[in-house]
Write a structure and sequence with these properties.
The chain is an all-alpha fold and about 350 residues long. It is built from 17 helices and no strands. Helix 1 runs antiparallel to helix 2. The longest helix is centred in the C-terminal third of the chain and has 34 residues. The chain starts with 11 loop residues before the first helix and ends with a helix.
């Protein structure tokens, strides 16, 4: 096959333009029709599109290129398929309730999605580019390749299975409001995030092999190593922007203020690692200093009722609960009195 040179020899410009066009196309539909169902679908499938195009443009059938391209396509297709299924079931995405009708606020999300897709795709994009493929490539099967394949399998299973486990758990009426502590969630509070991080670093590990083993040199060598920006960006995103920071303290605050299974949630956080899978029987005994460092449960995730709770909501909830208890007590007293009356006037 003929190698295609498009704008630059790392495919950075062409993949950026394709990503911008792809996301703006779906943004125009979503904003015009106030339609949430295509948002995450557009993000996940964009990875598939970029991998197919760069692999086709490369004109090579190197096994390493094929493997990393297939890996990111599998991940993107599964993610977009699952999120599309979930949003069809739920009907709308609550993330956009305050943005859906505001052009620039809504567009801002899509611009961020463009950056996410383009950046995380970098290891595959650069590996498939002419500036890398012009060098001899090591045969697929190096130690890095094997380790990358194993890590990808672990991450893919963690992310995909945990998504299904949580969906099944939440779809049962008897579990409404309860803490999801089944399956992989017994070992980590966010197995899907951990799996996603592992997946992206595994793809990078395979993609960088030609540089690591000295086959690719010069600027192309540095370019391949620089694509670690992709998995690092995704990790920072999940840990400090759209993942843990939106799930941990805000989720705990909501449970505490509403009294929604707060005690069981508190016990769950004490015995379950925030991100890195670890046996709960051991984690419950891990000192706080190790939780805040090695296990990545940073102070920004920790909820302190005295500092972070809206005490007026707590007082309002407690007052309502007290009133319900008093009402229930009066009803029970009334039923007891009725029973005594009936006992004193038995039927003849």
């Amino acid at each position: 096959m003929t190698e295609v040179h498009a704008l630059d020899d790392y495919y950075l410009a062409i993949t950026l333009l394709i990503t911008i066009g792809y996301q703006l196309f779906f943004f125009s539909i979503a904003f015009s029709l106030k339609f949430d169902k295509l948002t995450d679908f557009a993000g996940g499938t964009n990875f598939v599109v970029l991998a197919i195009i760069t692999l086709a443009f490369s004109g090579h059938d190197n096994a390493r290129q094929i493997v990393v391209s297939i890996f990111i396509m599998l991940w993107g297709a599964r993610l977009s398929g699952f999120l599309l299924f979930r949003i069809i079931k739920t009907g709308k995405d609550d993330r956009f309730d305050d943005k859906r009708d505001k052009f620039f606020s809504f567009l801002g999300f899509w611009i961020f999605q463009m950056i996410w897709v383009w950046t995380v795709s970098l290891p595959v994009t650069v590996l498939n580019s002419p500036n890398v493929t012009r060098f001899p490539q090591p045969a697929f099967g190096t130690g890095r390749d094997i380790a990358g394949v194993i890590l990808f399998a672990i991450g893919f299973i963690l992310e995909s299975v945990s998504d299904i486990q949580k969906y099944i758990f939440r779809s049962k009426p008897e579990n409404k409001g309860r803490v999801c502590d089944v399956g992989f969630f017994t070992w980590t509070r966010h197995p899907n995030y951990f799996g996603e991080i592992i997946i992206q670093f595994s793809i990078y590990m395979i993609a960088v092999s030609p540089a690591a083993y000295g086959y690719v040199t010069g600027q192309a060598n540095r370019a391949l190593y620089a694509t670690i920006l992709g998995p690092f960006f995704l990790t920072l995103l999940l840990m400090f922007v759209s993942g843990l920071t939106l799930q941990e303290r805000p989720g705990a605050k909501k449970r505490y203020e509403s009294g929604n299974h707060w005690d069981s949630y508190l016990n769950y956080t004490k015995r379950t690692s925030i991100l890195i899978p670890f046996p709960p029987q051991l984690y419950v005994h891990v000192p706080t200093i190790l939780r805040r460092t090695i296990f990545l449960e940073f102070p920004i995730y920790v909820f302190d009722p005295a500092k972070h709770a809206d005490q007026s909501k707590v007082e309002e909830r407690e007052a309502e609960e007290g009133e319900r208890r008093r009402t229930s007590g009066r009803v029970q007293d009334g039923q007891s009195e009725d029973g005594l009356v009936h006992d004193q006037h038995p039927e003849s």
